[in-house]
Every structure is written in structure tokens, then in C-alpha cells.
Design goal:
Elements: E1 3-9, H1 18-33, E2 37-43, H2 54-65, H3 71-88, E3 92-98, H4 106-115, E4 122-125, E5 129-132, E6 139-144, H5 161-172, E7 178-182, H6 189-213
Parallel strand pairs: 1-2, 1-3, 3-6, 6-7
Antiparallel strand pairs: 4-5
Helix pairs in contact: 1-6, 2-3
């Protein structure tokens, strides 16, 4: 049976990116463990993600108000629904991203804002609160950073990216992601090589553990 992996690639550096290199490592390890792995790659820098304004924003508030959508709103909402369907149709999720200014690249935040929509990925009831609508699945975040955040803040700098992605994916129902930290990417070559090796080993162990549970 085909296993569909949705890979959200958030680094614009392509070949020079450690997060992308680790994603290749993850996919190679997964292929070795899965008979039929299909990778759906969504590069947030190349994907024509719709702007969250105009008809799309109007459609969102129409959904919240329980109002029907007009033609432009329905067309815009359909674009978002297609992104949510693409996520929901995946058997597992992989996000590879660098840390930017303690958080995530704005294009990755854009994708998350688009797939986090009422009636599509979550719902709200005044009596019971928010409820996710997506199906839980294995999710992995490969998070690279200039500093070393393995034991907490790096020289006083916080890691806001990991906790944010943890909560954002949990909120819509994807589940709790396994977050693989890789840093430092700045500094001497020995430190960078050690960070990459440690992250690669963590990836291998993570995939092995999932195979034993499956």
C-alpha cells in the first residue's frame, strides 16, 4: 500500500540548506523502511499560496458567521480547501525549516495560516471550545538553527519555532510532532558537522521506532 508523505520545505537556500539536506536524509531512511513511499513536496517559496486578504478573508468571516459564499468567495475558499485536502490526504507530514529570528520563515507561517481555517481544519462550539478536524498522523519537524538549542535557550535567545509548530499542528488535529533540532549551523566546521551527524542519527532512530510500532 502506498504511503504518502507530504514534505513542507521552508528553506529558500535549496542546496545550501541543512534543513533540506536533513529532509533528504529523512526521506531516504523512510524509503528504506517503506515498500511504496510517495513524496508530495510543497516548497513554500515556489508554491503559489493565495494571499489571505480580499475574497479569501471575506470567505473566512462568512464561514464564521454562517453566511453562504458568493462566487469570488467560493473560488478563494476552494483554494484553501485544496491545501487542507492535500494535508489531510497525507499519511505522514514532514516539515523542514530553518529558525529565523527565533521563529519560522514567513512563508511557512503563511501556509499554516492558510490551512488553519474554521470548518476545514478546526471547529468551535461555545460550550465545548475548539475541536480539531484533521486526522492524527506521524509528523516530523526538522528544525535547524544558527545556535544550539538542545538544552534550552542559546546564549539567551529563545526557541519560539519549536513550541509554535508543536501547538499549530496539534490545534488542527495533525497531532504532536517529533521535533528534531539541528544546531549550530553557524560557527566552526566541527560544530556544524557534529550537529548534522546528531540530527541524522535522531532521524534514523525516529524512523526505526515508528517502524517497530507500525
Amino acid at each position: 500500500m502506498t504511503h504518502r508523505l507530504l514534505h513542507i520545505e521552508a528553506s529558500p537556500r535549496r542546496e545550501a540548506s541543512l534543513s533540506t539536506a536533513l529532509a533528504v536524509r529523512f526521506i531516504d531512511c523512510a524509503r528504506a523502511q517503506t515498500d511504496d513511499l510517495e513524496v508530495d513536496r510543497l516548497d513554500v517559496w515556489a508554491e503559489p499560496l493565495p494571499d489571505l486578504d480580499g475574497a479569501l478573508l471575506s470567505a473566512k468571516y462568512a464561514v464564521l458567521a454562517g453566511r453562504g459564499l458568493d462566487g469570488a468567495e467560493a473560488l478563494a475558499w476552494g483554494q484553501v480547501a485544496a491545501l487542507v485536502d492535500r494535508l489531510e490526504g497525507a499519511d505522514s507530514l514532514l516539515i523542514s525549516t530553518p529558525m529565523w529570528n527565533f521563529g519560522i520563515p514567513y512563508r511557512l507561517k503563511h501556509w499554516i495560516d492558510l490551512v488553519t481555517q474554521p470548518g476545514l481544519s478546526f471547529t468551535f462550539d461555545p460550550e465545548t471550545g475548539y475541536r480539531p478536524l484533521l486526522t492524527p498522523r506521524p509528523a516530523t519537524v526538522l528544525l535547524t538553527s544558527a545556535g544550539d538549542y538542545a538544552d534550552g535557550p542559546s546564549w539567551g535567545r529563545p526557541n519560539l519555532a519549536g513550541p509554535y509548530l508543536h501547538e499549530a499542528l496539534r490545534f488542527i488535529g495533525v497531532g504532536t510532532p517529533d521535533i528534531v533540532l539541528a544546531g549550530p549551523t553557524a560557527g566552526g566546521p566541527d560544530a556544524r558537522a557534529a550537529a548534522q551527524a546528531a540530527a541524522s542519527e535522531r532521524i534514523r532512530d525516529l524512523i526505526d521506532a515508528r517502524r517497530r510500532v507500525a
